[in-house]
């Protein structure tokens, strides 16, 4: 069958992993864009970000937003991976019907 790359078990595993990735990264993206203080250790702060500045929190908030947008982009990639896995599941089911 044309376009069939993986079997049904690998496709099901891909669907489960992509659902988990979308949920987890979506929530992380929300928490980063709302500037959650718990996630400060995951923000890539450098020495120049901690230097005296007229508006010190703004640089840190910009970094929070940047990491949050990266999480949303990664969640979108997981959505694409999940759609690919769903297509593989359908192709595997079609192959089963053709064999019978």
UniProtKB/TrEMBL annotation:
Q: What InterPro entries does this protein's entry cite?
A: Ribonucl_Kappa, RNase_K
Q: GO cellular-component terms in the record?
A: membrane
Q: Does the keyword Transmembrane helix apply?
A: yes
Subcellular location field: Membrane
Q: What keywords are assigned to this protein?
A: Membrane, Transmembrane, Transmembrane helix
How does this chain sit within the bilayer? Multi-pass membrane protein
Sequence intervals crossing the membrane: 12-32, 67-87
Single GO MF descriptor: RNA endonuclease activity
- Tell me its family: Belongs to the RNase K family.
What protein does this entry describe?
Answer: Ribonuclease, RNase K a
Q: What is the lineage of its organism?
A: Eukaryota, Metazoa, Chordata, Craniata, Vertebrata
């Amino acid at each position: 069958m044309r376009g069939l790359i993986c079997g049904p078990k690998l496709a099901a595993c891909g669907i489960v992993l992509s659902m988990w990735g979308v949920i987890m990264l979506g929530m992380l993206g929300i928490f980063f864009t709302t500037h959650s203080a718990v996630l400060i250790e995951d923000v890539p702060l450098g020495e120049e970000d901690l230097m005296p500045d007229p508006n010190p929190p703004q640089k840190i908030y910009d970094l929070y937003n940047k990491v949050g947008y990266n999480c949303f982009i990664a969640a979108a990639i997981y959505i694409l991976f999940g759609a690919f896995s769903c297509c593989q599941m359908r192709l595997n089911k079609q192959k089963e019907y053709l064999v019978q």
